[in-house]
Input
Amino acid sequence: MSDHSVVVFPVKSRADLKDFINLPYRLHQGDPNYISPLHTERRDLLNPKKNPYLERALVQLWLAKRHGEVVGRISTQIDPLAMEVRGYKEGHFGLIAAENDLSIFEALTHTAENWLRKEGATTNVGPFSLNINEETGVLVTGHETNPMMMMGHDFGYVSEHLSALNYDKGRDLNAYIWEMGAEMPATLKNFEDRVPTKGMIVRSINMKKYHEEVRIIGKIFNDAWSENWGFVPLAENEIEHMASQLKPLIIPDLVWFVEMNGEPAAFLVCLPNLNEAIVDLKGKILPFGWSKILWRLKVKGLKSARVPLLGVRKKYLNGMLGPFMVGSIMNKMFYEIKKRNIEKLEMSWVLEDNVPMNQLAKRMGGRHYKTYRVFQKSLR
Output
């Protein structure tokens, strides 16, 4: 199957990096559901001075060319924090995009596997852009709809080619959508009539203590997700980075906490769907991109939103209190969403084997409408 006309080489120059960032936009020219990430955001993601993940991880970007034309890309990552959690050297790949040709995917993954082996990795897992706490997985169902912010959008052939190259399913990640009707889902409405458990307080974020509040989110997240498949904790500098990145998007009444006897126990973060604000910018900010984004966010308002972060401390998760906490904060969030005339809400992503959260999403009116897949392959 190897096509010797496909040459894969490491990204070294600014021109290479530009080609790397621009490739998905060129590939998706005819795809009405693709929304190009902002090129400035992609550059920041790949800039060691802007992305704290790059301070600890070893990352190499690769381009594939055929007859002098860029036809594919991939990244390879070694994350020491993931290795510490796993107890073995797990390699990662990500940012994969290429023309619909198995030989290109074969050349890209072969190069990635060889590089990871040389770094001592015994398995290759991904795609992560660049880690599991950022954009994760390949879209395998739901191609007919636009992606929400911080969620990927791939052609169906990407997962097909990875499967053909002996990449197995690691886990599927589910995305749920709520079409906001006139009435709140009955299951959620029930929570407003229930008497709160003694010592339980539900409150919105305190923007005067914003960075402290985001650190609380990080601590709950690291506890809540610690036993989930693929978990890698948020490092302190990543939490601070997240706080700075998300602050312009934060609507205080869409970020909620639950406290039990004065201890933070659960949280929910709902964000306006930035992709809706950048849908027609083609990845470019200049000359009028920022003004369009700000006007759409602050004046016009967006019609869609996403819940990217939700967590309940482990000691509450499997008892009666965990679902009650989630239902209580989602009830508050739904009221605020209705006030803002938001028409669609996505909750993503949810691990396929996280049975309590999948059941809860469905009971509360969510419809499973997209599936993303994380692949894995042994390198031994």
About this structure: The chain has two domains: 6-174, 178-371. Residues 11 and 279 are 28 Å apart (CA to CA). The chain has a mean pLDDT of 92.
